[in-house]
Amino acid sequence: MIELAPGLIYRPGYLNRAAQEHLLAELRDVLRAAPLFTPRMPRTGKAFSVRMSNCGPLGWVSDHEQGYRYQAMHPDTRAAWPPFPPEILAAWTDLGGYPHDPEACLINYYASDACMGLHQDRDEGDFRAPVVSLSLGDTCLFRFGGPARGGKTRSIKLASGDALVLGGPARLAFHGVDRIMPGSSTLLAEGGRFNLTLRRVTPPGIADVAVRT
Ligand SMILES: O=C(O)CCC(=O)C(=O)O
Ligand SMILES: [Mn+2]
User: Fold this and answer.
1) Total domain count for the chain?
2) How far apart are CA 26 and CA 31, in angstroms?
3) Domain contains 142
């Protein structure tokens, strides 16, 4: 475990090859039910280079008309998102250090030419909960900074099986993906990279007892 900055925890090789294959099989099932869609920027309607899907009660979506948001259904099929597979929940319990279930798992698929600009994850209603990230497939160059736009940034390589937790003072750190390194992993037959981010979206209510410790 490496603390890259206060609250930014990097766990290289968190999932071994067998665990990556198991998680990938679960992910393939999710994507059969909830196919990758192309999110679009608010206002401009420009397509993201990353394609996305989700599992869990809520999913993150973005389009021209309504912008960034969480919603309970797939934007194209209008079906409810598939439930969390067990491996995904297990990673949250193990890494998140947060006593309530996650509510969304955003699945990003980066083809070899995809990237993601620097941003904060701030569409959630409870920043006390961390964001837990798992990577599968090709290595990427991941960039992170502090909570202010325009501050100093650093980059690390995130490889297949690596985990990252953005919590505490790093919960609102700017971050993004500069590029993918094609051919750096043999996990995905199609190449490219999947990233899964687990998120708590709503603050737990008074009646919401801690179900996972
Ligand atoms: O792909 C990654 O490692 C980061 C993804 C991300 O920041 C996001 O989906 O908000
Ligand atoms: Mn993010």
Assistant:
1) 1
2) 9
3) yes
What's the average model confidence in pLDDT over 174-184? 98
Confidence of residue 182 (pLDDT cuts 50, 70, 90): very high
Report if residue 89 sits inside a domain.
Answer: yes
Residue 206 forms part of a structural domain = no
% helix / strand / coil in the chain, to the nearest 5? 15, 35, 50
Domain membership flag for residue 213: no
Whose Cα sits closest to atom 6 in ligand 1? 176
Domain of residue 17: give its range. Answer: 2-199
* Residue of minimum CA distance from atom 2 in ligand 1: 195
Interval 55-97: pLDDT, tens: 999 999 999 999 999 999 999 999 999 999 999 999 999 999 9
Amino acid at residue number 138: D
Rounded to the nearest angstrom, the distance between the alpha carbon of 195 and the centre of ligand 1 is 7
List b or e across 100-110, with b for residues whose CB sees 16 or more CB atoms inside 10 angstroms: bbbbbbbbbbb
The predicted pLDDT at position 205 comes to 82
